[in-house]
Design a protein that fits this description.
With 435 residues, the protein is an alpha/beta fold. It is 49% helix and 13% strand. The chain has two domains: 226 residues, Rossmann fold (3-Layer(aba) Sandwich); 167 residues, Glucose-6-phosphate isomerase like protein, domain 1 (Rossmann fold). It is built from 16 helices and ten strands.
Length: 435
């Protein structure tokens, strides 16, 4: 099933038909550039990103499943990573939790996505009486946060199980190159290795071993994700804007940014399980678009919670943002408002109603109010929170992000600005410079 893009009252803000006609040639120019004029390195990365669902390695997945079977009594898998080596897997696991409070046979816990001694100390204490293993993810092995966590957790696992047994409990997801420090460590220590394709950068790596290993240990259906991504590929291949929802979404964002000076896109959800999916979207767009003094700043609102903090500003504050709401139709398990004899809380007028119905009405009333408050609203609707839709949405947003970046004439596949703070941090920590 295709996802839907709704753009209620968008003509209150600009003439869509007129702008679409005007920008159609720009989209065609971008497609021609992709086919003919991209430099060889960018072309290679672009092709690999789009073809990932079709390059899916069933042998690798079998190897991961075999590993899980061998460790069937495992209580905890610690996944160490940051950025794209953390957010995609975390987003998928949270998105697909059917019973949020039910304890999984193997729980996936993340580390190395910050430098909190307190968090790591508590985690080490928590693992004392647990049966656990490590999956460390990094293409280079030199990113400070995961490298520090891996150093400490590796010592802990060796202390608990001994050096030889620990080798069966440490899995490394990295690039297949001696340039990678983590690859060298894995080779030297004889850890099980899972390869990240050289051309794939972190924020585009969800549908690779980066996501697959944590997903398998979390009992998620990877094959269904791939099916969803393949369908999204088919649905976003046309150059016709009305037939290609990724292009349509990218173009509307571009018009809002360039013509209406809307510099912030606020992604909105009404389901807590989508929190980390929006965090992944933030990284995807911000690292891809935010270059050369350009780009839409991405933020998020987790409603209805944030209506009680951000709601006032969105309704009546500065008008430099637009909203993109992520919505879905089917709720896995629901609650119904019971009738109360005394009705002390005056809520009997809602008795018999499902919580999902009330949540939807909060969403609808908020959307109407914000549009009336001069805030453009887009809505992306999918059927339900399952593996197929997760894979579809990942590919949809990746395709939209790439086209959005090309519309801004920036390279979606690099992030030179990130290296600036890393370089200064290295200087400070090694006492080469003080600022």
């Amino acid at each position: 099933m295709k996802i839907q893009l709704k753009m209620d009252k968008i003509n209150n803000f600009f003439d869509w038909e007129k702008e679409k006609k005007f920008f159609s040639s720009k989209i065609k120019d971008i497609n021609n550039k992709i086919k003919l004029n991209l430099d060889s390195e960018t072309q290679k990365i672009y092709s690999k990103c789009l073809n990932l669902p079709f390059d899916f390695d069933h042998k690798e997945l079998k190897r991961i499943k075999k590993l899980k079977k061998e460790l069937k009594e495992l209580d905890i898998l610690i996944v160490i990573g940051i950025g794209g080596s953390f957010l995609g897997a975390k987003a998928g696991i949270e998105f697909l939790k059917k019973d949020v409070f039910k304890k999984k046979k193997t729980e996936v816990i993340f580390a190395g996505f910050q430098v909190s001694g307190s968090y790591l100390n508590n985690l080490i204490k928590f693992l004392k009486n647990k049966n656990w293993a490590i999956n460390v993810i990094s293409k280079s092995g030199t990113t400070l946060e995961p490298a520090l966590s891996f150093r400490l957790l590796r010592k802990e696992i060796e202390k608990k199980y001994g050096k030889e047994e620990s080798k069966k409990r440490i899995f490394v997801t990295t690039s297949n190159s001696d340039k990678s420090l983590l690859f060298k460590i894995a080779s030297l220590e004889n850890y099980e290795r899972f390869i990240i394709p050289d051309e794939i950068i972190g924020r585009f790596s969800v549908l690779t071993n980066v996501g697959f290993l944590p997903f398998v240990f979390a009992d998620l259906k990877v094959e269904e994700m791939i099916k969803g991504a393949k369908k999204a590929f088919e649905d976003t291949i046309s150059e016709d804007i009305e037939k290609n929802i990724s292009y349509k979404y990218a173009l509307i964002r571009y018009i809002l940014y360039t013509k209406l000076n809307k510099k912030i896109e606020l992604f909105v959800n009404y389901e807590p399980q989508l929190f980390y999916f929006l965090e992944w979207i933030k990284q995807l767009f911000l690292e891809s678009e935010g270059k050369n003094g350009k780009g839409i700043f991405i933020s998020s609102s987790n409603n209805s919670t944030d209506l009680h903090s951000l709601g006032q500003f969105i309704q009546e504050g500065s008008k430099f943002l637009f909203e993109t709401i992520i919505n879905f139709n089917y709720v896995y398990k629901d609650c119904i408002v019971s009738r109360d004899k005394k009705n002390l809380d005056k809520l009997n007028y809602l008795s018999g109603q499902k919580f999902s119905y009330i949540n939807q009405k909060i969403f609808e009333s908020t959307k109407i109010a914000h549009i009336e408050g001069n805030v453009p609203n887009l809505e992306i609707i999918f059927s339900k929170m399952d593996e197929y839709n997760f894979g579809y949405l990942v590919f949809f947003f990746q395709r939209a992000c790439i086209i959005s970046s090309f519309l801004l004439s920036v390279n979606p596949f690099d992030q030179p600005g990130v290296e600036v703070y890393k370089s200064k941090l290295k200087d400070i920590l090694s006492h080469k410079k003080s600022y």
